[in-house]
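May I ask for a protein sequence together with how it folds?
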Amino acid sequence: MLKTLKFALLAGALVTLAPMAQMALAETPKDTLVIAENIDDIISLDPAEAYELSGIQVLANTYDRIMRFEPTDITKLVGGVAESQTVSEDGKTFTLKIRSGLKFASGNPVTAQDAAFSLQRVIKLNKTPVFLLSQLGWTPENVDQMVTAPDDSTLVVKIGVDFAPSLVNALLSSVVGSVVDKKTAMEHEKNGDFGYEWLKTNTAGSGAFTLKAWKPNESVVLEANPSYRGGEPAMKRVVIRHVPEPAAQRLLIEKGDTDVALNMTGDQVTSLKGNKDVVITPSPQALLYYIGMNVKQKELQDVRVRQALRYLIDYDGIVNSIMQGGAQVHQSFWASGFWAALDDNPYKLDPEKAKALLKEAGYPDGFEISLDAPNSSPFTNIAQSVQATMAQGGVKVNIIPSETKALLTKYRAREHQLLMIYWGPDYMDPHTNADGFANNGDNSDAASKGKPLAWRNSWSDEAVNKMTADAVRERDEAKRKQMYLDEQKKVLEEGPYAIMFQETKQVATRANVKNFIFGPSADVVYYNLTTK
């Protein structure tokens, strides 16, 4: 069930913008918003495949969704392209009416057929985020019968499971609920791919912006969609510059060569205090930083070893010295501040306790293991800290740095030993993280359905799988909340993770920009209300 969340709206400030073509240092155009951000995680911009934070952020601004959080109120889930909804008495048939008069950026009308096509192609393409919809009982064989459009204005969604209606709506608000222009996509179809190859680098939506260009590890350029149902954005274009170094982002925001800087570290933020041209706005995030432990690795199969590694991390030290206001210690799989979050943080740096656990597990002298980590801030410094403190328990950690995109590819093939990365919710219900961190019904390498974090770390526990299934079906709010609390405790003790921190994004903006909306996840970062 969706609850009022502790969201943070950014009505920030910004002053000048940077030129786009040569990216030289100069005042930015009045009608252009320039954002400095690390966007090396973008793999695809097809809503049926995109599952990385930067890509989802782009898609939130280029596609309207069946259900969504509007930029004017990111605490309330409402209809997107759907104007209204009725639910059958048994909770398994959802009839949605599509808003009249909607148009895609192409000029094509938005119809129920487009919405049905969009959901069907997610299932049929079977890419990374497919599990968000396949859990509704949809398969490539039945989805055309489960998702139908009897006419241009009516979308009928049937589910084969007993899910709370609020959870179904939350799933339809996730990235896979983006409504794709069927006509445009099929004009670019190749070999029955539903336009997939083309949509990896193009957009066909009805959102506030359209994709003008994406150059990997360089920039994303968006242009305003004049036919957007919320009105044409004041910013005619948005340029997201790939700036991985926090120090470079600080210099750009100081000089007015960018309007927004999104990845500065605590020391960079501290250095900007007193600068009247730059505003720092803390924005609590649902993003979690964690280390995944691949249970295929012999040493990691013992729960005592996994517990020992959690006692070899200096959580407080990293928060205070490296993050400097950019995070808080949080060790459970559902973020603090959200309904049903567990705020227990039982682990702290304790080398002696870790050594005792390792000795019990048969590793009195420790062992050697590799740690994959992004080669960007703050992960580089966090990884070095983890390497140093794990050595105190006799665990020799070899850091393998790489770009986030390459690291995620390795993770999804579960070829790592330890891997440091982040995770944000796909929708605002605890089931999203329970389903990712805890649920894994098929632990085979050839698993055909969605491959959540538990699968990536080769961990499957029948009792935990049952906890996930039971909680998602429970209609009693108090009981459901306790079920998620119990599940978080079990995963905290036995799971293949060292969940470390919950991010507090410290967004730097110039003083003349208003209404830059930065919510707690990539799904609710909006540019269309921004003015300068």
